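Design review, sub-item: ligand-bound model
Attendees: FS, YL, KQ
YL presented the inputs for the 2-phosphoglycolic acid complex:
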Amino acid sequence: MRQLKPYIVGNWKMNGSSADLAILKAIADAAGSDTGVDVGICPPATLIAAFAQSAGGVHIGAQDCHAKTSGAHTGCLSAAMIKEAGATFSIVGHSERRADQGETDADVAAKAEALHDAVLGAILCVGETLDERDSGNAIAIVTAQLAASLPQSASADWLSVAYEPVWAIGTGRVPVADDIAAMHAALRATLTDRMGAEGAGVRILYGGSVNSGNAAEILAIPDVGGALVGGASLKAETFLPIIQAAPR
Ligand code: PGA
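KQ shared the predicted structure:
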C-alpha cells in the first residue's frame, strides 16, 4: 500500500481565546515547515480568522459546518463562511456533535458534501460507544456508520476519516493496538469497497486520548495515518511531541 503522509490534527473543541495565538505560533514555528507531516488545528470558529493569519504551514480547520449554503439556520456556519474566515477543512460527525446535536449519518454525509462543494477538506469521524464495544459488534457498527456517512464525491484528495471510540475520548483509555489495527483495516476495506483503488489513499486517523506517551505506538499501527487530538493539542508542549512521534 502506498505510504501516506501522516496527518496530526488538534481539535480544540470549545476552548481557547485570542490569547492562545501564542500557542499556535509556537506550534507553527516548530512544526509548520516540517514537510514529513501535515499538521492541522481546529480552534473554535471565533478564532479561525485570527489563527489563519498566523498559521504558517499549519492547516486551520473548523469543527463543524452546516450542510446548506445559506438560510434560516440560527447559530450555524456554512462551508463558504468558514472558508472565508480562513479554514481549509473542517471536522464533521464528531461523536460529541452526533450525541449533543443529534447528527445522523445522513447529516454528516451532507455536511461533508457541502465542504467538497466549497473546495474544502473534511475529516469525517466515526466510532463506537462503550456498550457497542462491549457487545462485540464494534467493527460491524463502525464500518456501517462510515458507509452511511461517506459523501457521494468522496476522494482521497479532500477526505480523511477519523476513528474515535467514544469511550476513549477524554478518558485516558485507549484501545489495545490490535483492536485499533483491526478497526482501521475494516475501515480501509469499507473505503476501497466504495471508492476502489482511490480508497487506499484516504488517511484514517485515530483519535481518543492520544498523548505524548502513546503517540509513537499508535502512529506505528498499520493503516493509522495520523491522529485527531483533543486535550493534548491545547498546549504546544503536549502537542509538539505527538507531531514529532509521527513516522516519516
Ligand atoms: P481527546 O479528544 O484527545 O481529548 O481524547 C479527541 C477528540 O475528541 O477528537
